[in-house]
Specification:
With about 650 residues, the protein is of the alpha/beta class. Helices cover about 55% and strands about 10% of the residues. Among the domains are: about 80 residues, no CATH class; about 90 residues, no CATH class. The protein contains 24 helices and 16 strands.
Length: about 650
């Protein structure tokens, strides 16, 4: 009898209520024996499924999925929504003649914290755990172990008094409570302990502090003593960094924008790896339901998905909203204790230690990833060597029509994620990651120290660190939709944090410039100077160029004769500004799909104002780096981030 014949039988019905509601079919012994030949796991699970009210036809469907995905019947029954882990634990306990336990005292668990942490991060079934209250010791069994021990219990019935069946979510929650302090310490200090030179916990080292101090004193003194010469020298330095950013954009334009070609569809194997998804949330109650719905559309076997909704433990409103959204069984809320800096990378480090997957992807709370993005990433990883550590998916802005700021942001993102980053990837150059839609080999991520909890742009830092350790980062094609800030009130703090983080990253990796150069090579070393230091400096000096041009133009218009220096500055600044705007417009237009280019003239019209906003954010970031280097300015989403709606015209 084939599988299709087994799965399509029509069993007779019998009366009698079952836990799942309704009535249960009379077992068709012949069909069950045939199913047992195809799916041996079923042989001991028929009575469990009967107690749960799961029909024989559904049981065969569950068994087929378990064989295809390399999972267990219990995992597939839960993933498909036929029963909860708690229901199965109670059914297994009743079938084995054991008691089911609903709560576990974390302090009573008889195991070390390191062992508990290893169990949380394993993709294997949870082992039996012992608990002791001092007078009595019991063994807590995951439902699968209880099922395997049924035969032993018949032989040794005295064991029943010491065995309890506990649902895996209850055991995991107890283990999390047990190791919360350990995970918090590792999340905060592991990178600093293992690789102190790569940690932004210290803003500058000794020689960098000396240089900053010398510049802080020397530049004003030079401006006072030799104003003209000092201004000219600074102008040359500023122009060099500004034009280096311009040249980088023109290089990407010259090579053409060829978005990464998605690998051809491959046959999906019967045993996909567990894929962990990390989503950091803070004060995101308003969009909790949308997030759960978006993540539910991911195309990956539910029994192999391990989604962590990472919240601060005191963010009760967001946690309550997530629970109210009734996330499926493969989504777990991870509550991060208030320990160390309150930053996204610290929260991610904490949650990563509870993940079961060998592949990990990071999303933001407002993200709507393409359903097939995980499949594309897995295909790329599976056809490349272990040195490919990370894949960056493109980010696309969905609300660009809402305001001129959002429209400019969308244009900027197109230039970055469809233009510059794929160009860097094709040339095997250092690729600064975006803050979301990063797909990692977990082994590589952990080998380089995870995210830096003290860096407010942990993504850019991690991109540089991966390359320093000999890993590669590439791009994929399927996008993630997200929303851009629509008002200056939201945009400026976000851009300030980005600029501050790029400066942090530049300072960290330039503590030993010779080693940085040696590990990255000359091309990627120059790219790092441009992307981390150059972008911030070029944004900061933009108004200097505008101001100098205006001053020289006014002098010329009022009849003053221009000096050689003034003429030179006018030429240099005019070239800087025109080349800067043109390179920005060309790369952005080239990276924008043809069907979305309508209205780009609006972006061009407001670019000078948009760049002046960048300048303000750049100077603000320098102040923040000095006064509060590790402050994470939260970017609100949902209604809090939206511009007031305009009346219909």
């Amino acid at each position: 009898m084939s599988y299709f014949e087994v799965s399509s039988f029509e069993p007779q019905r019998r009366n009698g209520a079952v836990p799942g509601g309704g009535s249960s079919p009379l077992p068709d012994t012949t069909a069950r024996k045939a199913a047992d030949l195809i799916f041996p796991q079923l042989s001991t699970w028929w009575p469990i499924f009967e107690r749960l009210g799961i029909s024989d036809e559904k049981a065969v469907t569950i068994a087929a999925a378990a064989e295809r995905n390399g999972t267990t019947l219990k995992e597939e029954a839960v993933a498909q929504g036929h029963a909860t882990a708690h229901d199965i634990a109670r059914a297994v306990a009743a079938n084995a003649g054991l008691d089911a336990q609903g709560e576990v005292d974390a302090d009573a668990l008889v195991l070390g914290d390191n062992q508990a942490a290893m169990i949380l991060a394993s993709d294997r079934p949870m082992p039996p755990l012992r608990v002791s209250d001092g007078a009595d010791t019991r063994v807590l069994l995951h439902s699968l172990e209880a099922q395997k021990l049924t035969r032993r219990l018949r032989e040794m019935p005295q064991l029943a008094s010491r065995l309890r069946v506990v649902a895996s979510p209850i055991l995991r929650a107890a283990l999390m409570r047990r190791v919360s302090s350990l995970l918090g310490n590792i999340a905060t200090f592991d990178l600093f302990t293992r690789y102190p030179d790569y940690s932004a916990r210290t803003v500058v080292n000794a020689w960098q502090g000396s240089v900053v101090g010398a510049l802080a004193i020397g530049v004003p003194a030079a401006m006072w003593t030799w104003p003209t010469a000092t201004f000219a020298v600074l102008h040359v330095v500023f122009s060099f960094f500004f034009l280096s950013c311009v040249c980088l954009r023109f290089a990407a334009v010259a090579s053409g924008v060829n978005p990464p070609v998605r690998a051809e569809e491959q046959p999906i194997p019967v045993d996909l790896p567990v894929y962990s998804v990390l989503v950091a949330l803070y004060r995101e109650a308003e969009i909790a339901g949308e997030l759960v719905a978006s993540l539910s559309r991911i195309a990956w076997p539910a029994s192999k998905l391990d989604i962590k909704l990472v919240c601060e433990a005191d963010d009760a409103e967001t946690i309550a909203a997530l629970r109210a959204a009734r996330p499926p069984s493969y989504m777990e809320i991870v509550e991060v204790p208030n320990f160390g800096p309150r930053t996204k990378p610290k929260a991610l480090n904490y949650a990563l230690q509870t993940c079961r997957g060998s592949l990990v992807v990071l999303y933001d709370a407002e993200d709507r990833p393409h359903p097939d993005q995980l499949i594309e990433a897995w295909q790329r990883f599976s056809t490349n060597d272990e040195r490919l550590a990370c894949l960056q998916a493109p980010l696309e802005i969905a609300n660009g029509h809402r305001s001129w700021i959002a429209r400019s942001f969308a244009f900027e993102y197109a230039a970055l994620f469809r233009g510059l980053l794929p160009w860097l990837s094709r040339h095997r150059l250092m690729l600064p990651l975006g803050g979301t839609s990063n797909h990692f080999r977990r082994s590589a991520l952990e080998s380089v120290g995870r995210w830096d909890p003290f860096n407010v742009t942990e993504d850019a830092d991690l991109g540089a660190r991966l390359m320093r350790f000999g890993y590669r980062t590439e791009t994929i094609s399927l996008p993630t939709l997200e929303d851009a800030p629509e008002t200056a009130r939201v945009w400026i703090p976000q851009r300030t944090r980005w600029f501050k983080g790029w400066l942090q990253t530049w300072l960290v990796h330039m503590r030993n410039p010779a080693a940085f150069y040696r590990q990255l090579g000359p091309k990627s070393f120059l790219i790092a100077q441009v992307l981390f230091g150059g972008m911030v400096l070029s944004a900061a000096v933009h108004p200097v160029f505008i101001g100098t041009m205006s001053w020289v133009a006014i002098s010329l218009a009022t009849g003053h004769t221009l000096s050689t220096l003034q003429s030179s500055l006018l030429v240099v600044d005019t070239v800087n500004i025109i080349a800067g705007y043109v390179s920005f417009w060309m790369l952005g237009r080239l990276a924008t799909p043809p069907d979305k280019r309508r209205g780009l003239w609006k972006v061009i019209a407001v670019t000078p104002l948009y760049w002046l906003m960048m300048s303000y954010a750049a100077w603000r970031s320098i102040v923040h780096l000095y006064r509060m280097p590790h402050l994470w300015e939260k970017t609100p989403h949902g209604a809090a981030a939206r511009a007031p709606s305009r009346p219909a015209e």
